[in-house]
Amino acid sequence: MLAKNTDQGPTLAQVLAVAERLWPYDTAESWDVVGLAVGDPSREIRTILFAVDPVDATIAEAEAVGADLLFTHHPLLLRGVTSVAANTTKGGAIDRLIRGNIALFNAHTNADGAIGGVSEVLIEALGITRSRPLDDPDSIEPVFGIGRVGNLPTSVSLREFAETVAAAMPATKGGVRVSGDLDADVRRVAVCGGAGDGYFDQVRAAGADVYVTADLRHHPASEAREQAARPALESAGRGAAGTPHLIDVSHWASESLWLHAAAAEIRSALAQQGTTVETIVSSVVTDPWTLRLPT
């Protein structure tokens, strides 16, 4: 186990207050669960581990690095449970966290659309530094919103852009999937970190040439490409014919890029209050797939 930070750390309550300012809880989707799941707000926090998923592997990592707080993107208790017995999946995680004196907190959909949040970090990793919310692309200010949309400095082929996406993502067995004319020029890019196949109307309305997201299911993706193949849609104001092309990445990979930014924001905000905390970004790949075979 690594030695813990010996400087004065903030209380968990102070960390929670900073997180609430950065990613207001009331901006989360109505179905979502965000905030503190395990832990005593009065205890001191010296080391925080940032991860996408609150699973056994990241809890073990938190134990190994001596973390007082496991800060995740995904919630542990998104759906109701009737037992937290140690021999259940959720209960076992909670039992292990309590025994290890490790608090658990998450920022989920309230961090997805935030300024400097999941989708903004994703689109910036693809070479776009000026973007707007996908559901309000004409907004003057870079406010909270679903996904992001913006323009590349110059047009590139879909193949070349897909290679840029693949290079920007951490390695996963699933890799990157592409749907569209690989030789077509693309410039206007829409992204949504995590599962985003419910936002095709917003993508078309924003005039995106290509859409980067994760967990694209067969029917929504197929229907989106069928619609793109119909030239009549261009005159209907729903994007140019042939667009949007689709790029499907790992859910975990698309959101893991944000962890470094989140850690930096927490560390900076606490430093301004005169407290010091060590932040560590998880090195564990929690993408669930372990092998991909050609068919």
From TrEMBL:
<comment type="subunit">
    <text>Homohexamer.</text>
</comment>
<comment type="similarity">
    <text>Belongs to the GTP cyclohydrolase I type 2/NIF3 family.</text>
</comment>
<dbReference type="Pfam" id="PF01784">
    <property type="entry name" value="DUF34_NIF3"/>
</dbReference>
<dbReference type="InterPro" id="IPR002678">
    <property type="entry name" value="DUF34/NIF3"/>
</dbReference>
<dbReference type="InterPro" id="IPR036069">
    <property type="entry name" value="DUF34/NIF3_sf"/>
</dbReference>
<keyword id="KW-0479">Metal-binding</keyword>
<protein>
    <recommendedName>
        <fullName>GTP cyclohydrolase 1 type 2 homolog</fullName>
    </recommendedName>
</protein>
